[in-house]
Design goal:
With about 425 residues, this protein is mostly helical. The chain contains 15 helices and two strands. The chain has a two-stranded antiparallel ribbon with strand order 1-2. The longest helix is centred in the last third of the chain and has 40 residues.
């Protein structure tokens, strides 16, 4: 069998490549011949020899595999033990890719106390300016129903412009929400008009002194209308308010029954506005709610203004006001009292959303003190000693009531939490 295979092997290998194979005896197996030929080729040919890589003693890049981080010359990345390489990148870009970027804080987030103080300042400032300008207009244009319409009309125009530019975006309203907001708007319109009737009839300080009784009406409505149990301490805190308003009213130099009764009706109207507002709580933001209430209230204020003051306005009101101050000042005064009315109500809403009930209570009392004090200084109203003492007692009673009520609300909130 070996002789039969050998010629085939000889014929397959060319003599010019492997001449020494023809000297092999015929008994050697072909596999052995091939292995021997390969070994000789490997030993004789230097082109096929593989030697280990030479060591480079002065390598510019020193690699050290150890438990410590590996440093590469000229770079600051770290090659960790698990084999991951961190290249130097911009910190913000790396944070973006990982999704952990912290947005830059605005002024309000960096200084919340200063922003809240600014809101309180603007609330007081706008309220004082409104009351002063409003009373000055009544000195030469004593038509509170028409002025009330102007207040709401300017505010509605302002809301429509804000909706047009999308600041804020207008919230949709449906029939059910309209039915809920309508009683609130009616009470708002009645309270607003009656307040202006009182402002036109008596001194601003006296109107605000009477309006200090509003907490008393709120407590009475909560007890006898809503069925809420009012603690005895809250009722006792209202006693100084009633006594103080009574003392101030007896000796108020500008007292008249129209101003007194109108302010009392305003207290009742705003009390029921608070009751209906609780029933009309929706997911809509306060800015849109106030805008819709202003629109509905405007529709209810126009008919009384036309019926009660319409003929007098055409015959005497407009001509008398223009003759006294001029057309331009008359129009600008009406515009600015409407703008200040809307802005101070809007800023008041934004301010109350930023503070706790206790801070709100103190701020509301201080606001009334500011308005009474500035109105006395600006208009030079003379007040008797008894009126001053009664006003101070009423304001102190409102402060005590507000603190007790705020403490009760805070305790309720903590129990819910």
């Amino acid at each position: 069998m070996a002789s039969s295979i050998t010629p085939s092997i000889h014929s397959s290998i060319r003599p010019s490549r492997l001449p020494s194979l023809y000297l092999l005896p015929s008994r050697i197996s072909p596999n052995h011949v091939l292995l021997q030929a390969r070994s000789r080729l490997a030993t004789k040919s230097t082109r096929l020899a593989f030697s280990p890589l030479p060591e480079i003693p002065n390598s510019p890049v020193a690699l050290e595999f150890s438990r410590k981080p590996l440093r590469i010359a000229g770079w600051s990345p770290t090659i960790r033990q698990r084999g991951s390489i961190e290249l130097p990148v911009v910190k913000a870009a790396a944070a973006d890719s990982e999704g952990h970027v912290e947005p830059a804080k605005n002024f309000g987030e960096r200084f919340p106390a200063l922003l809240t103080g600014f809101f309180f300042f603007m609330w007081y400032f706008l309220n004082v300016i409104f009351n002063i300008l409003n009373k000055k207009v009544y000195n030469y244009f004593p038509y509170p129903y028409f002025v009330s319409v102007i207040h709401l009309l300017v505010g509605v125009a302002y809301c429509l412009v804000c909706w047009a530019v999308g600041l804020p975006k207008r919230a949709p309203i449906d029939r059910d929400l309209l039915l809920l907001l309508t009683p609130v708007a009616i009470c708002h319109a009645l309270g607003h008009v009656m307040s202006n009737v009182s402002f036109a009839a008596v001194a601003v300080s006296f109107t605000h002194t009477i309006k200090a009784l509003e907490p008393f009406f709120n407590a009475a409505a909560s007890q006898f209308v809503l069925g809420h149990q009012i603690p005895l301490s809250l009722w006792l805190s209202l006693a100084p308010v009633v006594i103080g308003v009574s003392l101030a009213s007896l000796t108020e130099l500008s007292f008249n029954w129209i101003g007194f009764i109108s302010a009392m009706i305003s207290n009742v109207a705003f009390t029921y506005r608070s009751i209906y507002s609780k029933k009309a709580m929706t997911g809509m933001d306060s800015t849109n709610v106030y805008a819709y209430i202003s629109i509905i209230a405007l529709l209810f204020c126009i008919p009384p203004a036309v019926l009660i003051e319409g003929p007098q306005l055409i015959q005497y009101g407009f001509r008398g006001a223009i003759a006294k101050v001029g057309l331009f000042k008359f129009i600008t005064d009406l515009f600015w009292i409407g703008m200040f009315y809307h802005l101070y109500n809007q800023v008041a809403t934004n301010t109350l959303e930023r503070v706790a009930p206790l801070t709100h209570a103190v701020g509301n009392v201080l606001k009334r003190v500011f308005v009474i004090g500035f109105s006395i200084v600006v208009f030079g109203n003379r007040i008797s000693t008894q009126t001053g003492i009664g006003t101070a007692i009423a304001i102190a009673g409102v402060a005590i009531y507000s603190l007790i009520k705020a403490n009760m609300e805070e305790q309720k909130r903590l129990k819910k939490l």
